[in-house]
Amino acid sequence: MLNYFYYLTMHNFCAKTPKMGKNLTSRGEDYSKWYNELVVKADLAENSAVRGCMVIKPYGYAIWEKMQAELDRMFKETGHQNAYFPLFVPKSLFEAEEKNAEGFAKECAVVTHYRLQNDPDNEGKLRVDPEAKLEEELVVRPTSEAIIWNTYKGWIQSYRDLPILVNQWANVVRWEMRTRLFLRTAEFLWQEGHTAHATKAEALQEAEQMNDVYATFAEQFMAIPVVKGLKTESERFAGAEETYCIEALMQDGKALQAGTSHFLGQNFAKAFDVKFTNKEGKMDHVWATSWGVSTRLMGALIMTHSDDKGLVLPPNLAPIQVVIVPIYKNDEQLDAITEVANSLLNDLRALGVSCKFDSRTTHRPGAKFAQHELQGVPLRIAIGPKDLENKSVELARRDTLTKEIMPLEGLTPKIKVLLEEIQVSLFTKALNFRDTHITEVNSFEEFKDVLNTKTGFVSAHWDGSTETELKIKELTKATIRCIPLDAKEEVGVCVYSGQPSTKRVLFAKAY
Amino acid sequence: MLNYFYYLTMHNFCAKTPKMGKNLTSRGEDYSKWYNELVVKADLAENSAVRGCMVIKPYGYAIWEKMQAELDRMFKETGHQNAYFPLFVPKSLFEAEEKNAEGFAKECAVVTHYRLQNDPDNEGKLRVDPEAKLEEELVVRPTSEAIIWNTYKGWIQSYRDLPILVNQWANVVRWEMRTRLFLRTAEFLWQEGHTAHATKAEALQEAEQMNDVYATFAEQFMAIPVVKGLKTESERFAGAEETYCIEALMQDGKALQAGTSHFLGQNFAKAFDVKFTNKEGKMDHVWATSWGVSTRLMGALIMTHSDDKGLVLPPNLAPIQVVIVPIYKNDEQLDAITEVANSLLNDLRALGVSCKFDSRTTHRPGAKFAQHELQGVPLRIAIGPKDLENKSVELARRDTLTKEIMPLEGLTPKIKVLLEEIQVSLFTKALNFRDTHITEVNSFEEFKDVLNTKTGFVSAHWDGSTETELKIKELTKATIRCIPLDAKEEVGVCVYSGQPSTKRVLFAKAY
Questions:
Q1: Which residue of B has its CA nearest to A164?
Q2: Is residue B494 in some structural domain?
Q3: What are the pLDDT digits (tens) for B76-110?
Q4: Is the pLDDT of residue A219 over 60?
Q5: What burial letters (b/e) apply to B266-300, b meaning 16+ CB within 10 Å?
Q6: Does the pLDDT at position A444 exceed 70?
Q7: Closest Cα of chain B to A504: distance in Å?
Q8: d(C-alpha B468, C-alpha A363), whole Å
Q9: Which of chain B's residues have a Cβ under 8 Å away from the Cβ of A89?
């Protein structure tokens, strides 16, 4: 069934040819332009008529669906269930948790009216009906803690009602001023977990566990190595007592926060008066976490692996893992190739490989090759008349851009293995890049020099003060990406203030 | 993996006991109250702090997820792909298709501002920042034709770009004045397919095909018989030239529109100037369809099958198909029962049955029975010490409320068959009810009498005029639910006006 689905969807993905990769700006020329062009040319997403909001196109959405499916499986395996809460948050609820409100009020979409009417002054035009003003404004959720904790109040009386382990797949809106496809959009898709616990220890453990789930997902499925760490106070989620995060490094040496998991303490329980009777019969406020990843991960995926020819996709997330392209001069040849291709498709599908025979007659093989490269299909098989004679195929790897003649016999298990190799190889390559771009520095000169030349993460001692952190940000544009969970205790002095420090933190310029 | 998921989720579904079914109002007493109570008591959904918006609780959401998975599979099998378009529609785009705008402008949420600020007059409170007024208001999508057709304009130049077969899973908002959980809520979840075609015939075929997909889904998965038909002009989707629909009948004799599929003609293509070069090299406007089903289906599911003890779920949509409840007096007995239960669970899971051992020590068997009845678990297995001795179990069917002692040996394949039987039996029961509630009438007296006493669909001749239709609605509250696709041509006279008519249509009071 799954294979059938892939067949059909790929059939559509191939129906239109995206603009070709030869026009793609190179990374060296202009990394930012390369990214923007790639997203559009590979048919992943495009800007919409709504300022800052994107359209996620079918090929991009198919990758997001694969991410969703895997994450959803991991959430359910760790005991979570999905639910759905309202899109709107009444202003009075939004106000309740002060820090959270302060953090998000600056950038939210506000619904003030519930009706349009014909504009009496402009025929055929509509205007807001002034009679239809809401008594209380509604905020389009920038995050759902407020509406969810207001709901949890009705669900929790006793420790027997805990834990609540709920996740929501939803759209959220943050009125960002400068937007970029996937990386920062006014509306984005995400999942937000919201859990309620009887004890602080349990909530902390949950927050850390979900950060671990994100790390596993990023590394094993997206092939993106991440540093697990804690955010500093100034970088924490508004309303959190501790924010766990996973930080990734893009090819241009800038960091990208790929997921966060917050220990919210009792802040929301207090703001919404959510108490429970504990095992000892005493009343206590409930402990909370929340955690999320979003379509921003698409940006991380693209910027970690792709190259000047286009998208490079890890096989675990590729909507099509193998594409077969026929090379022929007449119908007879095509028929013979089709027979071999269909047999290959069947064998590959039986092994759970998603694959497609690109038999379009409207495109030449060269155009097909360019398209599949641009769209990051991990393996391409070309079959021509010579191959038929020799009982072989030409196999091309998207990640290394290498080609090889392979015998048809015994091909499918080799492809299966090769896909796994590509998955590992992409991760290893990204890991090497990341690891060689974590630079320990011991002076502020060195700090600035590394940031400006080598780029990447700078591992430096910091005195723990927000003042120093902000000063460094002002001077270098670098922020503390995280305090790594595995940071060694060591005696040192702050790279900026010279004050004592016990561990190194990771600075970087970031998306 | 799937089974493991069910195990985990069911573990959570059972963690809290919903309010018991004994307090459920009976259908005979007050059908409407019964429905409202059932939705809440079975833990499917509840009202939220936002007027007219609901919270879909985990158990309710798990059923919706099963619906989504099946529908998504069917859409992909018919060649559709998912994508995602913005939540907001700029007012100017919303205006473009006049009828569509007129139909939805009355009931939409309008975003006018993009920022809140601290209220200088009210410490700790927020107010809309008057400086942050949008230049153009944004409508929260009540449906996405406008934003999507504005996007398609950029995707379509030639017949080679067609068809576009795209679906979106999304939330939409319609500012309904009177709301009821699942049936009519201000925000609801749905899918909306939006397709673009080169010819009228192809678009019509698509609209009819997707209505057929909905009918198949309703009948085979939801076990709800439906009538496939066309809407009259006054009941059509705003902006459509033809609306196909599936109409179901609830136990109280009221109809429920369960899905619609619209042939939009060239209306949206004209409104958004979407033209293409056809095979003959001439420019033409594109032909369109749109089609959707929503969380309203949850309401249909509940009202078709459930009874005075609570929810009755068709096995194909039940998050847990079989629950095993141990009956024991001491740990030794529990241990022995657990061993048998675990072996049963393994065997059932191997057959793809989702099942759960309800071993909670906090609840007595009676309470567990009541909960599983209330939540509609299709099969319940009770195992006590006597059963262990006799190598048997007690098997109870939720739909018939019958119990049977069954030998343990060979039990699992019998359960698998039984689940299929229940699925068919629920459909047959609903079909019998529906078929005996389609009454042909030939006079307006008879018409009113059937509506008021027997209820259900009234099959009557109608003169085809909107005037008559509206008059009948005014007098009886019944609307034309559809002109059945399989309506026979026959000579007749309109039940109200006495004017000539060539076929019968179905009237009913409706949700």
A1: B12
A2: yes
A3: 999 999 999 999 999 999 999 888 888 888 899 99
A4: yes
A5: bbbbebbebbbbeeeeeeebbbbbbbbbbbbbbbb
A6: yes
A7: 37
A8: 57
A9: 50
CATH number of the domain that residue B63 is part of: 3.30.930.10
Question: What is the per-residue pLDDT for B362?
Answer: 86
Question: pLDDT tens digits for A254-313?
Answer: 999 999 999 999 999 999 999 999 999 999 999 999 999 999 999 999 999 999 999 999
Could you give the number of structural domains in chain B? 3
Same domain, A230 and A353: no
Decide if A179 contacts A185 (C-beta within 8 A). yes
The set of residues, in sequence order, having a beta carbon less than 8 Å from that of A128 and lying 6+ positions away, is A113, A115, A116, A117, B110, B112, B137
Which positions in chain B touch A8 (Cβ < 8 Å)?
76-77, 79
Residues of chain B with pLDDT under 50: 1-12, 14-15, 17-19, 21
Which CATH number goes with the domain that contains B502?
3.30.110.30
B25: in domain = no
Identify which of B8, B101, B189 has the shortest CB distance to residue A77.
B8
Closest CB to A65 among B82, B117, B139 = B82
Hey, are the CB atoms on A116 and B109 less than 8 Å from each other? no
Q: Are A381 and A397 in contact (CB under 8 A)?
A: no
Residue A4 is predicted with a pLDDT of 38
The answer to whether residues A343 and A195 belong to one domain is no
Residues B97 and B168 in one domain: yes
Residue B270 sits in the same domain as residue B328: no
Share of chain A above pLDDT 70, in %: 96
Locate the chain B residue with the closest alpha carbon to A57. Answer: B83
Dist CA B495 CA B5 (whole Å):
55
What's the mean per-residue pLDDT of chain A?
A: 94
- Residues A267 and A334 reside in one and the same domain: no
Which of B1, B93, B112 has the CB atom closest to A112's CB atom?
B112
Establish if A247 belongs to a structural domain: yes
Reference A253, options A468, A439, A488; nearest CA is: A439
Q: Which residues of B touch A145 (CB under 8 A)?
A: none
Predicted pLDDT of residue B22: 58
Which parts of A266-330 are beta strand (E)?
275-277, 283-285, 287-294, 322-326
Instruction: Please name the helix (run of DSSP H) or strand (run of DSSP E) that holds residue A102, with its range, or none.
Output: helix A98-105
Q: Which of A13, A105, A173 sits opposite B126 (nearest CB)?
A: A105
Give tens-digit pLDDT for A140-162. Answer: 999 999 999 999 999 999 999 99
CATH classification of the domain holding A338: 3.40.50.800
A116/B91 Cβ within 8 A:
yes
For residues B249 and B278, membership in a common domain is answered with yes
Rg, C-alpha atoms of chain B? 26
Cα-trace Rg, chain A: 26
Say whether both A253 and A383 belong to one domain. no
CB spacing of A140 vs B111 below 8 angstroms: yes
Domain stop point among A273, A304, A335: A304
- Among A4, A7, A85, most B C-beta atoms within 10 A, so best to mutate, is A85
Which of A447, A457, A437 has its CA nearest to residue A495? A447
ipTM score assigned to the predicted complex: 0.95
Q: What is the pLDDT of residue A325?
A: 98
What pTM value is reported for the model?
A: 0.95
CB A382 within 8 Å of CB A393: yes
Verify whether the Cβ–Cβ distance B57 to A86 is below 8 Å: no
Asked, for residue B26, whether it belongs to a domain, the answer is no
* Domain of residue B451, residue span: 438-508
Each residue's pLDDT tens digit, A9-68: 444 454 454 445 458 999 999 999 999 999 999 999 999 999 999 999 999 999 999 999
